[in-house]
Amino acid sequence: MFPLYALRDLFTDFFGGPKLVTGSQLGALADALTTATGGLTAAADGAQSDATPLPAFANQVDTVAGAADSVLLPLAVPGKMVFVCNNTATAMQVFGHASNPANAGAGDTITTPASHSPVASGTGISMAAGVACFFVCCELGNWKQGAIS
C-alpha cells in the first residue's frame, strides 16, 4: 500500500542532483497509481474515529447498511488522488483525517463542487448511492471532490 505522503516522497534521493530512478522506486510509483480494492464495507457507526480507511488508489465500497456508515480518506498531502465508488443503494459519509501530521496536526477538510468551501474533517460529506467520484489534494490538508458519475 502507498505511504501517506506525497508521490514525490518516493524519490527522496533525487534531492541534491540528478540521479537514476531505481526499480523499487518505479514499482512503488506504479503501485501508488494502480492499486484497487473492492468489497469494502463502510463502518456501521458513522463516526470519523471508526470510519473504514480507504487503502488504495481506487476503492469500491460494496456494503453500506445505513446513511451514517462511513469511510476515511488518506491524509491530504499534495499530489495524492483517491477514487471512490459507492457501489450500493445507500448514501455514506466520507471523512478526512482528524489530525494530519504533515499539516501541524490540523484536521483535513473536504471541499465539494456544490459548496466551494471546506467542510471540517469531523463533519464529513455525504456521498450518494451508486456514485463514483475522485478526491484530489492540491493544497496541504484539503481534499477537493470531483464527480465522475
Protein described:
With 149 residues, the protein is mainly β. It has one helix at residues 23-34, and strands spanning 36-41, 52-53, 58-63, 70-72, 81-86, 92-95, 109-111, 118-119, 125-127, 132-139, 142-147. It starts with 22 loop residues before the first helix and ends with a strand.
Silhouette: globular
Largest sheet: 7 strands, mixed
Please state roughly what percent of the residues sit in beta strands, choosing from under 5%, 5-15%, 15-25%, 25-35%, 35-45% or over 45%. 25-35%
Task: Give Rg in angstroms.
Answer: 16 Å
Order of helices and strands: HEEEEEEEEEEE
Structural class: mainly beta
Number of helices: 1
Number of E strands: 11
Report how far the terminal alpha carbons are from each other: 26 Å
Mean pLDDT: 86
Which spans of ≥5 residues are poorly predicted at pLDDT below 50?
none
Strand order of the largest sheet: 1-3-5-10-11-7-8
**Percent of residues in helical segments?**
under 10%
